[in-house]
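Write out the 3D structure for:
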Amino acid sequence: MANQLGVLNALDAAKTQWYHFTAIVIAGMGFFTDAYDLFSISLITKLLGRIYYFDPLSPKPGTLPPRIAAAVNGVAFCGTLTGQLFFGWLGDKLGRKRVYGLTLMLMVICSIASGLSFGKSPEGVMATLCFFRFWLGFGIGGDYPLSATIMSEYANKKTRGAFIAAVFAMQGFGILTGGIVALIVSAAFDHAYKAHPYFRDREHSTVPQADYIWRIILMFGAIPALLTYYWRMKMPETARYTALVARNAKQAAADMSKVLQVDLNSEQEKVDKIGTEPSNSFGLFSKEFAKRHGLHLLGTTSTWFLLDIAFYSSNLFQKDIFSAIGWLPKAETMSATHEVYRVAKAQTLIALCGTVPGYWFTVAFIDHIGRFAIQLMGFFFMSVFMFALAIPYQHWKTHNAGFLIMYSLTFFFANFGPNATTFVVPAEIFPARLRSTCHGISAAAGKAGAIVGSFGFLYAAQSTHEDKVDKGYHTGIGVKNALLVLGAVNCLGMLFTLLVPEPRGRSLEEITGENEEEKGQQQASVGNVPV
């Protein structure tokens, strides 16, 4: 583009270099921590139930009451949703870099604090845990729009999709590490403090030292985040923010000269000229934004919302599915520490086989077949597998291996599909001065879907028979009907994907129309039709 700034051209055309990989690791560590924290809570909820809600008269080990379980699992989501909106907006107001260190510190402090508790009563422990997990979520929420925007603004146009997807793929390693840490800690405690299974000795099946297990697992989440803090602070502000939003051409050229190790000219007149163009002055709530990007924002928010309903409710089924298949023995046949070990082992296996490979398939193919195709394909196969699990549901009860394979494939196509693309696209299709905000709005819609998926399905998937319902819950629609609903949700996702444009292979300014000189060119740059 003739009107493109030299510094942005240099970034677009840059060969893949070392700084791209350092940026992926620095930005990805937030996601590593995010996945670690959200994932590890599901490993320890059974243990918390045994320690704090033990009933010596019950034939089964203690479990968290439904309302407490919902709060412990869901409070981090509520924090994340708030953080995405707040830090997304702040990232456009103050700059990506200034806000970036703040979110990381919040994550470190709250990871450590969530392993501490005031008082010994169950209420006190749960209240402390929920309080700090909310603020942990708030910090994690800020990482979504900031990491995606920073990576998208640093990347070259040829491999931008793969770089943003690689940041997101660090979640896979976070999930794996969560499982591995839980395995090591629980195995060590199991070995050091011998305990009988619950049915043999109710009182002593949970050793007092087991209280340290969940605290160590949660606190470990602070370590990777802390390690990257120094590098985050050294990272310069992105050139696109400095030039197009802060309008400081000299600073942008100086920063990128260091990063790219080439001499770049500052083009202040060009920056001022671009800044006065009508295409660079409309706000988020203007008619002009609605005309140019309204449908895009509807596309990114709705697809993320629908995906997360399906994605997070599937995650919740894991423990029930493992028990049904016989991967997890009945709770009363295990001691508390051994149960943590078995749950961690099962979840780590699923992560290794389905979750992690899916992320990296996206990284490999996103710049070849495009975001649109991957997203459409992912939603399609997720619907297919959900229906295939639901319709012959009785058959799968006796064919466990088949059920497990289908279940893993749903996860694989979520990650080699909309789970990755819904994160990538909002960081590319909105103008620089609104990019972080729009990504935050899209991500918050996703977390709203996660809340619906987690809580709606916790209750909905309960059995239709009164005697098979979990303690404290009412009857629901059953797993089969819940899976049918999820299949339909994925079909809707396919429909809304049609609103999202294909940004592959074009510079960010070309996609958003920020460098247009004439109004006549506006419509040309942003089409709804995938390329």
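The CA atoms of residues 88 and 437 lie 4 Å apart.
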